[in-house]
Amino acid sequence: MKQYTLLIGGERVAVSSHAPVSNPSNGDIVGYMPLASEAELDRAVDAAAEAFAGWSRMPDEKRAQACRALAEKISEHAEELAQLLTREQGKPLSGLGSRFEIGGALAWTRHTAELSLPVEILQDDNEGRVDLYRKPIGVVGSITPWNWPVMIACWHIIPAIRAGNTIVIKPSPMTPLSTIRLVEIMNEILPAGVVNVVTGENSIGAALSAHPGIAKMIFTGSTETGKKVMASAVATLKRLTLELGGNDAGIVLPDVDPARIAEGLFWGAFINNGQTCAALKRLYVHDSIYDDVCNALVDYAGKIAIGDGLDETNILGPIQNEMQFNKVRELVEDARAKGGRILTGGEPMDRPGYFYPITLIADVDHGFRIVDEEQFGPALPIIRYTDIDEVIARANDNPAGLGGSVWSSDPEKAKHYALQLECGSVWINKHGAIQPNAPFGGVKQSGIGVEFGAEGLKEFTTIQTVLS
Predict the structure, then answer these.
(1) Contact 256, 279 (CB under 8 A)
(2) Tell me, what CATH number does 403's domain have?
C-alpha cells in the first residue's frame, strides 16, 4: 500500500512515520498518511515565505493564467482524484458524490481565475487623489475538513494564490490523500513553494495556526475547533477566515405542494449524507401539511440506494468516520427516548462500515439534542409549527447562523420571511445551493468572514491607501 509524502517547496518530502487511512465503507487501508513534524512544518512555512517574494510580484494576469492552467490540469486528473476521494471519504462516485465534488472544485477554480481586484479611486479632485490598493498578505495557513476535502482545498488555495499569497495546507487526517495528490498536480504548474502540503494529526494543525510565519489562517470545520484557531491567532494578530458549523433551519409554509418540494427538501438535508456545514439540519413544517410533508419525504427516501461508493448504483455512502457515526446514533437514540417518532431508519445498518440509513424523525421539538445540536449526518428532525412569527423566532434561537431556507408557492412572501432569518445565506425553495459568485459565510458562531466571489478574494488581501 502506498506511503504518501509531504510536498514542500516543490519537492516530495518523505517522513519516518505514517498513519493508515481507511475506507469507511469496509475498513480497507487506502494508503498511509505522512506524519509531519514541527520541523517539517517550519520548512514548509519557510518555503512558502521564500516563494512569496516572487509570486506576489508576478503580474496579475500571469497569476490568472496560472490558475486557469491549474483548472485544466485538475480536469486531466479528475477521474483519478474522484476514485481516490471515494475510497478515503466514502461518498459515491456518481450522483452528488466524488465526480460532482471534483466538478465543483473545477467550477470554483475557473471562476476565481477570472476575478481581479483593480485599484479603486476613492478621490480625484482639486484637493488631491486617493487610491486604494489591495495587496497580498503573505503566507496563508489552511486547515480543511473531511467532508468535501478536494473542493474545500480549492476554495482555500485558489483565492489565496490568485491574490498573490502562498499557502501551507493541512488536510483532515481522515481524508488527507486526495489533498496530497491535488497539491502534487498543482505543483506541476506552479513555482516551487507557492502551494505546500503537510499532514498529520490535529497537533500539527494547532502548530500551523499558531506559527509566527503564518500571516492569515483560513479554517473550515467545527465551531469548537474554530475557536481554538482564533485563540492561537492572538499572539501574532493573524487575519482569519473561519467557516464553522451550522444548524440550518428550513421553514415550510402552508401553501406548498408537499410532493413537489420533497426532492428539494431531501437533498437540502442529505447531500453528502448530511455531512455538509450548510445542509438542512432542522425542518419546521406547518401543522396543516405536516403529515403530508413527512409522508412525501419517507417516499422519496425509499428510492435512495445506500452502499459502497465504488458501486455506481449507490446514491449515498457511509458516514465518514466512527466518531461521527457514534454521534448520529446517540442523537437519534436521544430523540427516540424522548418520544420522537422514527418515520424511517433509526438503526445502524447490519453490514461492515459506518453505514447509517436515512433517518427521518417526527414529533420532536427544541430541547431534543437532534434539534439543538448539529447532527452532521443522515438524520433529520421534523418540527411542527402553527405560527410563522413564532417559528422564525425559534429558528433563530440557536448559536449557529450559517444558512436557512423558506419554502412557499409565493416567492415574495418567502423572501419576506427569509430576510428575518439570522444566517449568512438564505435560499428560497431550495437549500445549500452555494455558487462561486455568491459570498458565503456565517453569522453568530458559524464563522468570521466570507468565501467566494470578489468579496471572498478580498479576504486574502490587506488594504493600502495612497494619497497624493
Answers:
(1) no
(2) 3.40.309.10
Question: Are residues 232 and 279 located together in one domain of the fold?
Answer: no
Same domain, 98 and 208: yes
The answer on 320 and 193 residing in a single domain is: no
> How confident is the model over 23-81, as pLDDT tens digits?
999 999 999 999 999 999 999 999 999 999 999 999 999 999 999 999 999 999 999 99
Strand, coil or helix: 179: helix
Residue 435 lies in a domain: no
Q: Say whether both 336 and 458 belong to one domain.
A: no
**385: in domain:** yes
Contact predicate 13/7, CB 8 Å:
yes
Is the distance from CB of 271 to CB of 96 less than 8 angstroms?
A: yes
Q: 177: part of which helix (H) or strand (E)?
A: helix 177-186
38 catalytic residue (yes or no): no
Catalytic residue among 243, 374, 451, 459: 243
Question: How far out from the chain centre does Cα 37 lie?
Answer: 26
DSSP-derived letter for residue 310 is: T
Residue bearing cell 465534488: 101
Q: For residues 260 and 207, state if they share a domain.
A: no
As for how many domains the chain has, the answer is 2
Say which residue the cell 402552508 belongs to: 254
> What cell was used for 22?
481507511
Give DSSP secondary structure letters for 184-236: HHHTTTSPTTSEEE---SHHHHHHHHH-TT--EEEEES-HHHHHHHHHHTTTT
**Sole residue written with cell 488536510:** 171
Whether the pLDDT of residue 1 is over 90: the answer is: no
For residue 436, being part of any structural domain is answered with no
Which residue in 45, 38, 322 sits closest to 206, CA to CA? 38
The answer to whether 319 and 325 are in contact (CB under 8 A) is yes
| Buried-exposed string 331-370: b where 16+ CB fall within 10 A, e elsewhere | bbeebbeeebebbebbebeeeebbbbbbbbbbbbeeebbb
What is the mean pLDDT of the segment spanning 380-392?
98
φ and ψ of 284, to 5 deg: -100, 125
User: Average pLDDT of 141-163?
Assistant: 98
Is residue 261, in this structure, part of any structural domain at all? yes
Question: 328-369, pLDDT tens digit by residue?
Answer: 999 999 999 999 999 999 999 999 999 999 999 999 999 999
CA 259/CA 210 separation, integer angstroms? 51
Domain span at 44: 6-244+443-467
pTM metric for this prediction: 0.97
